[in-house]
Backbone:
């Protein structure tokens, strides 16, 4: 099998392979717009995903297409990029090729690995089927299905105990994803769904947010994280800090010796870097991340860069956080260093510029830490909305999200309460799927 | 297991069970708004589907949530309705109960069966996996996946013949669904996708519409059906009438002795009524439909009504067509007859009022037959758009569809080019899914 990028001698231009079309990979490709290189951007999906709004897809507030854009379409005018749909299965650093499942190897002169992370279940991979996490659109649709099906099963349930287990949701992990899920889920249960059922009162829905550390949203200052906790509690969420999950069963979550009856559990705790990092043959940290050099290259391999959630970059002794801005800026710096190497210039070190930290807790409640300036409440919420609309890719997505949000805000209803693939996929146990 | 509707003696009000939340079932439930009955509306999905726009979901033009609305949400203020998510597996006409998979039986005093139809593969059920049809949102997502994946596979293909097989699409059936799919697919291939690929020219996409009868759109007058054919051919679709599929393989379709190399086949021919009809124990026609009485009740069972695609209703010697208007009006008449029976009044016969027939062929091309007034071209197209926006359920869906259409029309781009569940579901053969 032959393909243009598979014939090393044909192209005089250096080949840059980018693994992953997320914030890091896409921004790197775009930063190489005018560089004399042939770029191949490889992704497992056909779209770039605006991950900060993924929880809104998982909670039926936005349709998946509002927060995604086809990679081909974003890059259609950039003629030095070929987009390839496929999954990287390994990297051969000696022969400088990327192995792709079911496709020919991709040779590279420069490689940028921006493959992101999946969830870490802290040594309990068997929990994944019972407590799905939220990284991709397929994940979000699965969470949406389980969230909506739980109310259907509660309506159908034959006894009070069973009904209560279907109306109890446990969210593990008090970072932004866990907090945002909890805040929006309680609102949907108590407002949007209230009149829709005849046998259950969805206002009795119980949402428990479990955080192992001493406080939720540890990336924020103490005072804001306290505000967030108070807001969640006002909405009716039970916030429990300093508590670790010890066991997950189809109808219960254990915290130490306490058994919490719950049919539906979502996982928003802990990252494990893509297993691709292992094939680089360099030291990884506990979370599986690559400890990169200051220029974001891999030790011993100046031609390989790692950015985003897969990279461990220390700055003033602290790791750069695994957020969109870190990946975007990392991608841009790696691209600039590729350009410099080609031009024979000295590379620059990565300097992460922290623009601030935002989170939304629920209707009219948000928090913002803007380099020391703290906002909360309605002001924080509006700031969050504005920033997220602005950063979305494409006019259509912005217009559509604005429309969905405006209608949801005014009517309290949710636009995407659609259960697709009602029959659960193979291998999913009966966690939230089967009745009594 | 007990549930309110399972305890016959508790409710003094007659129990009406409606199977199916499509046009027929939903309209019947709504028409019984003020009737002194307890209604249970049973559907396999949680949503009402606006089927006339389903082909736009299948072609990445609209997100699924724009043409669906949760049944619970539509009926939330109608307190005499309980919505139940579940699949009817049989009807016991002697004991007057509906069997529901994995749930208790539903006893009824009146039963309305509006379970619709699936596709008929004319004695070749094995074709279904190779040539999916378009009846549900899950069907539409599967067609969207295959349609978009075909271009990805073509871009990856190693030889010209294989590439051409991925760029050839065969649509079987020249009714409205087949025509609308063909018209929109050729536009997307030739316009929206054109700049997105590097190795293939999507303008070379070949779309073949096969119709077994002498002309496409047989429900329209001769002249309009000829206009539609001409429009499709202008767009670049190959329209072949009087040709029947004799065999479907993973990479080819046979028409008689001719082998057409094509990796992707869609099925838009022939209906087979829901198998539920069989459990009524009354005569069915060849398509599996129930030959109902003039009042839409089942012969010998005045308490059971059948409406929509599942019913064969003759009017002036001709069957009422299986279109939305037929189901809507049928549902309303059946509801009225239930109300009359309860009030001791005489039943009315069903009178189908044909409001007209519309179809869209592609950008700026539509046809309309309004009780003898024929429109085509841009006028027909605008009429089609207006009518479909007006008939959509809910302000949000209308606003969102309008926005998506406006942007698609102005930019030629498609908003929902999202491939979900990239790994094909279990049991799907390698039709459009595997590379060389």
Residues:
């Amino acid at each position: 099998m032959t393909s243009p990028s598979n014939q090393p001698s044909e192209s005089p231009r250096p080949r840059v392979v980018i693994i992953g079309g997320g914030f890091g990979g896409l921004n790197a490709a775009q930063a190489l717009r005018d560089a004399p290189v042939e770029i191949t951007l490889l992704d497992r999906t056909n779209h770039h995903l605006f991950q900060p709004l993924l929880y809104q897809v998982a909670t039926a507030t936005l349709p998946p297409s509002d927060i995604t854009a086809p990679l081909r379409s974003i890059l259609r005018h950039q003629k030095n990029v070929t987009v390839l749909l496929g999954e990287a299965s390994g990297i051969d650093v000696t022969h400088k090729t990327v192995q792709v499942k079911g496709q020919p190897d991709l040779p590279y002169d420069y490689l940028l690995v921006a493959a992101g992370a999946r969830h870490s279940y802290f040594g309990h991979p068997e929990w994944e089927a019972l407590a799905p996490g939220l990284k991709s659109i397929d994940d979000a649709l699965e969470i949406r299905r389980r969230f909506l099906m739980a109310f259907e099963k509660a309506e159908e349930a034959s006894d009070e105990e069973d009904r209560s287990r279907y109306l109890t949701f446990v969210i593990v992990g008090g970072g932004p994803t866990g907090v945002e899920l909890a805040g929006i889920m309680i609102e949907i249960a108590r407002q949007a769904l209230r009149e829709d059922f005849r046998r259950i009162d969805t206002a009795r829905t119980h949402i428990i947010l479990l955080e192992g550390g001493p406080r939720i949203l540890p990336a924020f200052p103490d005072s804001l994280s306290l505000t967030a906790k108070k807001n969640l509690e006002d909405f009716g969420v039970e916030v429990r800090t300093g508590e670790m999950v010890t066991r997950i069963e189809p109808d219960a979550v254990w915290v130490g010796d306490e058994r919490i009856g719950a049919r539906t559990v979502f996982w928003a705790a802990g990252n494990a870097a893509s297993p691709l990092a292992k094939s680089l043959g360099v030291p990884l940290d506990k979370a599986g991340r690559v400890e990169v050099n200051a220029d974001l290259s891999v030790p011993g391999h100046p031609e390989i860069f790692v950015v985003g959630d897969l990279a461990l970059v220390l700055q003033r002794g602290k790791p750069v956080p695994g957020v969109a801005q870190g990946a975007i800026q990392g991608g841009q710096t790696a691209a600039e260093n590729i350009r410099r190497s080609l031009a024979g210039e000295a590379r620059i070190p990565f300097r992460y510029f922290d623009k601030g930290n935002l989170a939304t807790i629920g209707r009219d409640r948000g928090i913002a830490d803007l380099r020391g300036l703290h906002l909360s409440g309605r002001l924080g919420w509006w700031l969050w909305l504005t920033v997220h609309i602005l950063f979305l890719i494409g006019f259509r997505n912005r217009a559509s999200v604005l429309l969905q949000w405006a209608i949801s805000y005014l009517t309290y209803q949710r636009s995407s309460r659609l259960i697709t693939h009602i029959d659960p996929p193979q291998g999913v146990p009966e966690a939230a799927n089967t009745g009594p």
User: Anything to note?
Assistant: The domain at 4-44+86-119+271-343 of chain A is CATH 3.50.50.60 (FAD/NAD(P)-binding domain). Residues 137-156 of chain A form the longest helix (20 residues). DSSP finds ten helices and 27 strands in chain A. Chain A has two domains: 4-44+86-119+271-343, 131-269+357-411.
